[in-house]
Sequence to fold (179 residues):
Amino acid sequence: MNINHLKILFSEEQIQRRIKELGDEMNKFYNGEEVYAICVLKGAVMFTVDLVKHLNMPLKMEFIRLSSYNGGTSTSGKVNAVDISLPDLNGKNVLIIEDIVDTGLTAKFLLDFLNCNFHTKSTKFCSLLDKKVSRLTDIEPDYYGFEVDDKFLIGYGLDYDGYYRNLRYIGYMEKSELE
Ligand code: IMP
Ligand code: MG
Fold:
């Protein structure tokens, strides 16, 4: 993959502006109540750290790690819980933070896991990107930053074979240019 073929989809400014809007919306919804923000590693790392800086309620950050890709550009269809250790979330407001909802299999896995293990006060799912066209489940994020087409996206946490997570913007490659 050649980084020069990357087309910018969302600039750093666009991303940051939208994250502030999401933060404002969440501050209204939670109205000062404590929140457990759960970052789904690795992809959501950039989004999580930028989003929580806008949240003004008492907040704890948790990190879990799931994987469904094996280094390629499409999901293996099987979600692998690399590390899903969490504190007691009974009676808590839980906010899951993801980079992108694609098929929705990861989101469904996580929501089922929380449902089976805890009676939370509330569970909200927030994803920076929503690839609605590729959905294979009935999952809809409660909050999302941008709806995107069926392109393989990289940057701002999203990787190709582990690379490019450090970009400040989100770009895409035509699928024909990926290999
Ligand atoms: P899902 O389980 O198919 O919804 O996919 C969820 C995970 O796949 C996301 O959390 C991402 O880590 C990864 N993913 C999905 N689409 C893309 C993409 O376009 N670029 C990079 N990673 C992606
Ligand atoms: Mg992810």
